[in-house]
Design goal:
about 150 residues, two-stranded antiparallel ribbon, about 35% helix
Length: about 150
């Protein structure tokens, strides 16, 4: 299952980029897009708001790759703010109970991107996930690696 998910991410990313070099930011954007498929929020907003306030490069790449795409009848919107987010990618992770946070697990995030053996992976903080009101698929959680 892990190999299928990673191949899916890479295929989605390379098809979006054509012949361009795949950067860490483009892989992170692809991960974020795929996270949306495995998380349920308890709202009916017409967009998925992806908030990336701290990383201008990631925000630019995510905007280019994800902005305007639709998933589950919602448009994806990449924004520079920290509130009203479905996904918040930030070095400081306030723990709103209905926002998927990506940052430092030590700072309270639910997910953290890691580069291990030149491969982008992610770790999770299961306690923070359980405290949230989000329904996150066990398929996604099984793909996480331990943070060393």
């Amino acid at each position: 299952m892990k190999k299928i998910f990673i191949i899916f991410i890479l295929l989605g990313c390379t098809s979006a980029l054509g012949n361009e070099i795949v950067t860490q930011e483009s892989l992170e954007a692809a991960f974020i897009f795929n996270f949306l498929k495995f998380v349920q929020w308890n709202d009916t907003r017409p967009t998925y708001d992806i908030c990336i306030p701290d990383d201008e490069n990631l925000r630019k790449v995510a905007t280019a790759l994800l902005e305007g795409k639709a998933l589950n009848d919602r448009q994806i919107d990449v924004v520079n703010r920290t509130d009203n987010c479905h996904v918040l990618v930030s070095s400081t992770s306030p723990n709103p109970d209905s926002t998927l946070t990506i940052g430092s697990l030590d700072q309270g995030a639910m997910f953290e991107f890691l580069v291990i053996d030149n491969k982008l992976k992610f770790a999770i903080n299961i306690d923070n996930i359980r405290k949230s009101k989000l329904k996150i698929s066990s398929q996604l959680l099984r793909l996480a690696v331990p943070k060393e």
